[in-house]
Amino acid sequence: MAATIFLGVESSCDDTSIAVINNEGTILANVVSSQIKEHAPFGGVVPELASRAHLRNIPVVFQQAMDQAQIGLDDIDVVAVTHGPGLIGSLLVGVNFAKSLAFGRNLPLVPVNHIRGHIRALFLEHGDLPLPALTLIVSGGHTHLFLVETPDHFVLLAKTRDDAAGEAFDKLAKMLDLGFPGGAIVDKLAQSGDPKAFPFNMPRFSDGALDYSFSGLKTAAAHQLRRDPQRFSEPEGQAIRDLCASFQSAVVRHLLQRVRQALKVEKVASLSLGGGVACNSHLRQSFRELGDKYRLPTYITAPKLSTDNAAMIAAEGRHLFQQGITGSLDLNPEVRLNA
Ligand code: KG4
Ligand code: ZN
Prior knowledge:
Helices cover 44% and strands 18% of the residues.
């Protein structure tokens, strides 16, 4: 029997991506077109510019993915698309592209939740993870700690009450005029900074919830800058490196503090980490050290499958389709969607 070919479409934020995987879950193509140049002058994603760029990019990215996978239109069997959460204008481009393709070729259409896609990326890369798993998904839009009980059942243990971890990195970079997107730049500068140079208090909630909060860390960094602007005036100077290292260390401490708290309550067989912030070198190392300490196998997605990509969407689409779950052509994007 010929392999079933799944096409994944992702356009929820500022990356236009189309991927092709087969029924074994092998990635045949995973093309990502970034819009960094579009948004860099503004220091953040501008929704209207993002949707226009998706419109321009999506046919090109589609053709590149088809060429890379060495397939034609006739070979596509199933279309999977991110329908939320995300920016409405951005989501509309991907959803309408996928709907047109499904309608034109009479193909099944599978709606995919972006956050579940980030979790599925871990299965796509690492196969059958030992379950239950404690899974941290950290990106520019979300910070979620899940108990992944089965390949289908994910219990949300904690989420951010304000900024996402990646958003906090991006905002620090904007304050320091480092460029966009800031996470990777902060990571690089932090490598030659002192993580103990500036104090940051760990966020706490009076109700004792396991949730995350990053806005206090951001305010504390802004306070340091306001107190002594002269000290931070040299571009990429030592004070800036020290602040990046101290801030990054506080973000990672807060992320792992909740994982440790959850480990006191939940009995798990593995730890896993995904989402764009999983590219952070200090987080990757600290997460692995935590796994070693608790003698738990630890899985982290490779950078290409950590940041937004359509391979994870195609993989989640394949998983749903194999259980007989499909959507209909009146599919609409959902800006807010729980995992
Ligand atoms: O998963 P992703 O591509 O998009 C969302 O779903 O949001 O994540 C992008 C986020 C951005 O905030 C970016 O600054 C952050 O991931 N990021 C990093 C690093 N690389 C990307 N944050 C910290 N350190 C990094 N090395
Ligand atoms: Zn994402």
